[in-house]
Write a structure and sequence with these properties.
- The complex is a heterodimer of chains A (225) and B (79).
- With 225 residues, chain A is an alpha/beta fold.
- In chain A, 20% of the residues lie in helices and 26% in strands.
- Chain A is built from 5 helices and 11 strands; from the N terminus they run βαββαβαββββαβββα.
- In chain A, the strands form 2 sheets. In chain A, strands 2-1-3-4-11-10-9-6-7 form a 9-stranded mixed β-sheet, with helices on both faces.
- With 79 residues, chain B is an alpha+beta fold.
- Chain B has 2 helices and 3 strands; from the N terminus they run βαβαβ.
- Chain B has a 3-stranded antiparallel β-sheet, covered by helices on one side.
- The chains are: A alpha/beta (225), B alpha+beta (79).
Amino acid sequence: MKSSVIVFPGSNCDRDIAVALNKFNIKNQMVWHAETNLPKSDLVVLPGGFSFGDYLRTGCIASKSKIIKSVIDHVAKGGLLLGICNGFQILIETGLLPGTLLRNKKLKFLSKNVYLKVTNSDNKFCLGYKKKNIVKFPIAHNEGNYFAKDEIIKNLEDKNLIAFKYCDSEGVANDISNPNGSSKNIAGILNNTKNVLGLMPHPERAIDPLLSGVDGSIMFKSIFQ
Amino acid sequence: MKISAIVTLKEDVLDPQGKVVNQTLKNMGYNNITNIRQGKYFEIELNEASEEKAIKVADEICKKLLTNTVIEDYKINLK
């Protein structure tokens, strides 16, 4: 199984995700944003960080990079695409996922471990969470407050495209367990064909018992099950 | 009364965001754009009947709060 991690100026979780992919025997290649051809990949990852210094809007400049056209083609052919944190923001700016990510409700950068409920495990990224659907991942973001028009939220709910919701240790998703003000406690969403996942929390930082636990490992094991 | 204020970096101050936006537009095929500078826009509503006084207040808040006068310029417009 092969993966490509796209690297932008200002990406800072590109090596974390590469370590995670290697750990689970996925052959990974780093791809610079100015390339036009994507190497043959089963999975493409847009990593976390602050691509292009968050200039104009988070993810906006990166979404116009040369490599993005081949990433969109890869998705159209049914390839898997994962956007983590700033990668999620880039996915939204490319239009591959709907809605937008506003500044956190309390206008503070959040860096902590949070509980998440896996609300859709019927996709390649989350198959392994059928048995364990309350997990703990780190978050580290300033713009993670998911917002969209009512009809978009309704569509996400009707088609079961919300993959992760912020919750407490019991799995209760409410205002108290919502760290950043996201609509419906949304932490991650899928596209209609469920081959694109964008999420604010960092599964790649939860793959080692010494660092934030191992709940993220399940995702990387699931992908190529 | 409504007043708007536009705050921009002074011409000789480097604007990295504007430069990146400019370069991105070029990459997107807009080759006829020669320069872009990014700034901030404020809409100010105030209880003041006299235009002259309103502008004076706006000028004051631009100097005291909205602008870093070392690196930024501002323009005030009555709406």
